Amino acid sequence: MTEIVHATPRRRLPVLTGILVLIALAILISLGTWQVERLYWKEGLIADIAARQAASPVPLADIEAMAAAGGDIEYRKVTATGRYINNKERHFFATWRGQTGYYIYTPLELADGRILFVNRGFVPYDNKEPEMRMQGQLTGEQTVTGLAREKLPGKPSWVVPNNDVAKNIFYWKDLDVMAESVGLEKASVIPFFVDADSTPNPAGLPIGGVTQVDLPNDHLQYAFTWYGLAAVLVVVVAISWFRKGAKTPQQ
């Protein structure tokens, strides 16, 4: 006697597919919404930085107080007065407008004896040594105006070379090592930098005003991408269901 087995419709697969589609759709929409939120944040940040750069400079003491309170001092205009310690300058490898060279970080000794490291600007590769730009080695009391720059907490990335202290070539701004390498006590060094503005130096070197504010804002494009993928998913699923419905034999 032959046993007849009646097939039971397999409904689990369509249900599981539907759940997976809903999960994928939720993820894509969430990613798109997150990028929109990032867009608003980035636009606000760009506007804030622009406002800081357009503002009048404030005394160094104000920036110090803000930093001590945990405030954001990045790109805030500041002014400071002191004497450059030219024989302790440090050299940061950099490019400026397509030319290879160095940013010159020179300690500025304040009236109270503390030290502020100032990025005085760019010099071409052949002008690395002070003897090649003696006119720009300012002496006597100087007042510098520029942008406050926060101290880096550590090496930015493993791809960045290690600083070559022996040759006075820095590939990342390690303030503590810069100070230590020229015999300055960490306690006497103000824990942030100042990038000097574009006020001309004698003989044109260093070239000030080299601060580069480059904040890419591609979040709108990313948001369109994620929302677009969500829309494509809906269309593909709708077409698939429509075709399956058309192929279902009539009872």
TrEMBL record:
<feature type="transmembrane region" description="Helical">
    <location>
        <begin position="224"/>
        <end position="242"/>
    </location>
</feature>
<feature type="transmembrane region" description="Helical">
    <location>
        <begin position="12"/>
        <end position="34"/>
    </location>
</feature>
<dbReference type="InterPro" id="IPR002994">
    <property type="entry name" value="Surf1/Shy1"/>
</dbReference>
<keyword id="KW-0472">Membrane</keyword>
<comment type="similarity">
    <text>Belongs to the SURF1 family.</text>
</comment>
<dbReference type="Pfam" id="PF02104">
    <property type="entry name" value="SURF1"/>
</dbReference>
<dbReference type="InterPro" id="IPR045214">
    <property type="entry name" value="Surf1/Surf4"/>
</dbReference>
<keyword id="KW-0812">Transmembrane</keyword>
<keyword id="KW-1003">Cell membrane</keyword>
<keyword id="KW-1133">Transmembrane helix</keyword>
<protein>
    <recommendedName>
        <fullName>SURF1-like protein</fullName>
    </recommendedName>
</protein>
